[in-house]
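Q: How would the structure tokens look for this protein?
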Amino acid sequence: MPTPQTVLKEAPPTAADFSSLRAAVGWVNPELSVIEKSINSSLFWVSIFQDNRLVACGRLIGDGFMYFYVQDVIVHPEFQKLGLGSQIMRTINRYIAANCPAGSTVGLLAAKGKEAFYLKHGFIPRQGKDLGLGMCRFI
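A: Here is the predicted structure in token form.
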């Protein structure tokens, strides 16, 4: 039996693959046309495939000059705890180092319980004292 081949690509997944991966971790998906537009509006993508199956991804969104945001770092449940999330973040951090101007801000919203993962990759929590707490609004 051949050994599974894992390939990291600095490219977006298809909307169908991305939707499937999001569903695998329990996230609700909008229509595929909305997903496609969102994919195409991203600044940078990292996708990891095993035997041509999307098993992990992450992306950077923002204005490309002052504000950047790490979004959708997702690892399929069958492939978690194998270091794929760290591969994604190292690749995103290399892009940030090469492309984000001095003085720019890179943010993210960590899922509950995932804060320690992002601490390992250079992010700090907004504890509310100096910077205020992060906030969001879901539509």
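The domain at 6-119 is CATH 3.40.630.30 (Aminopeptidase).

Residues 84-99 form the longest helix (16 residues).

Upvote if useful.
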